[in-house]
Design brief:
Structural class of chain B: alpha+beta
Strand content of chain B: 15-25%
CATH superfamily of one domain in chain B: Phenylacetic acid degradation B
Strand order of the largest sheet of chain B: 2-1-3
Shape of chain B: flat
Pfam families (chain A): PaaA_PaaC
Largest sheet of chain B: 3 strands, antiparallel
Protein name (chain A): 1,2-phenylacetyl-CoA epoxidase subunit PaaC
GO molecular function (chain A): phenylacetyl-CoA 1,2-epoxidase activity
CATH topology of one domain in chain B: Ubiquitin-like (UB roll)
Distance between the termini of chain A: 41 Å
CATH architecture of one domain in chain B: Roll
CATH topology of chain A: Ferritin
Order of helices and strands of chain B: EEHEH
Shape of chain A: globular
CATH class of chain A: Mainly Alpha
Number of domains of chain A: 1
Oligomer: heterodimer
Number of strands of chain B: 3
CATH class of one domain in chain B: Alpha Beta
Radius of gyration of chain A: 18 Å
EC number (chain A): 1.14.13.149
Number of helices of chain B: 2
Keywords (chain A): Oxidoreductase
Number of strands of chain A: 0
CATH superfamily of chain A: Ferritin, core subunit, four-helix bundle
Order of helices and strands of chain A: HHHHHHHHH
Radius of gyration of chain B: 18 Å
Number of helices of chain A: 9
Largest sheet of chain A: none
Chain lengths: ~240, ~100
């Protein structure tokens, strides 16, 4: 392997940061369910998924710098996660819709990275197995909520509609990631369309790209609730710098 | 909210190939598929298992504690039924 140029090294660190922030922020959101999930069994399931994501975030952020500094001492504008993962948990249907959209994307993304010979292929090959379970979990709940009672159906439909506009951002090119974005997006759309169809949920028809779509998280622009989430995530480390146990 | 209304499931985990499934505990789940997934999260995430069974708790018929004596007492004084007179060959671990 030839020595990477300065640009390549910067792109690699930037890509690691983007993927690491996705995993870190979603992990924090899912962790918010601890003690508040609808049932104990589901709380454990969500915590497991959160811990998988935290593990991925630690590896990825370590590639970009010091993991603790990156997680706990950056300002909101320096985070590079997509806006989808920072969206509030909402009701259980919102959490599941967010999981469905994101885990489907992440599985396809890691699948492509694992198949390539880029710098992320090793960790992607490991993570893709974890993410396959996250997707399976989200799909099973989508089917049960969508095809469940009238109320669960309505809530699932609302959640899928509300988060739809954040999904276009997932397929914006990221410098440093060698991906076939068109294949990624069409496979994602096919998978989500199939699951929502089986769950008797109408595929949302709102815009996913362009002026009316949300999404500039990769550029450091985040939505209102993200600041509060960061404050909660970072306050301990900022209050007691270097604390250990 | 609680899981009231969700049936109870008994979970059996096989820890290694060649061993039998062992009762690991129980959990609530809306159906068998979800019970399997909950069991995976609750009982196998520290790589305790290679196979899981879930069984509706209502499908299990158990002996009653009241019947303990007629059920099990008669076996106690018949040592010839117990295979204690054999030497177990070396290398046999799970007998």
């Amino acid at each position: 392997m030839s020595t990477p140029t300065t640009h390549e090294a910067a792109a690699f660190a930037g890509a690691a940061l983007a993927l690491g922030d996705d995993a870190l922020v979603l992990s924090q959101r899912l962790g918010e369910w601890a003690g508040a999930a609808p049932v104990l069994e589901e709380e454990v399931a969500l915590a497991n998924i959160a811990l998988d994501l935290l593990g991925q975030a630690r590896v990825l952020l370590s590639l970009a710098g010091d993991e603790d500094e990156l997680a706990f001492l950056r300002e909101e504008r320096s985070f590079r996660n997509v806006q989808l993962v920072e969206q509030p948990n909402g009701d259980f249907a919102h959490t599941i819709a967010r999981q469905l959209y994101f885990s489907t994307y992440q599985r396809l993304l890691y699948g492509q990275l694992a198949a390539g010979d880029g710098p992320f292929s090793g960790l992607a090959a490991k993570a893709v197995k974890e993410v396959a379970y996250h997707q399976d979990h989200a799909e099973h709940w989508t089917l049960r909520l969508g095809d469940g009672t009238a109320e669960s159906h309505d809530r699932m439909q609302r959640a899928c509609d509300a988060l739809w506009r954040y999904t276009g951002e997932l397929f914006q090119p990221v410098d440093g990631l060698d991906l076939d974005h068109e294949a990624l997006e069409s496979a994602w759309l096919a998978s989500v369309t199939d699951v929502l169809g089986r769950a008797t949920i109408t595929l949302p028809s709102g815009p996913r790209t362009g002026a009316w779509a949300a999404g500039a998280g990769r550029q450091g622009l985040h939505t209102e609730s993200f600041g509060r989430m960061l404050a909660e995530m970072q306050h301990l480390h900022r209050s007691h710098p270097g604390a250990t146990w | 909210m609680t899981s009231d209304g969700w049936p109870l499931w008994e979970v059996f985990v096989r820890s290694r190939r060649g061993l039998s499934h062992t009762h690991a505990g129980s959990l609530h789940a809306p159906d068998a598929e979800m019970a399997l997934r909950n069991a995976r999260d609750l009982y196998t995430r520290r790589s305790e298992g290679v196979s899981i069974w879930v069984v509706p708790s209502t499908a299990i018929t158990a002996s009653s504690p009241d019947e303990k004596d007629p059920f099990f007492e008669p076996a106690a004084d018949k040592p010839y039924r117990h295979p204690t007179f054999y030497e177990i060959p070396e290398g046999v671990k799970h007998l």
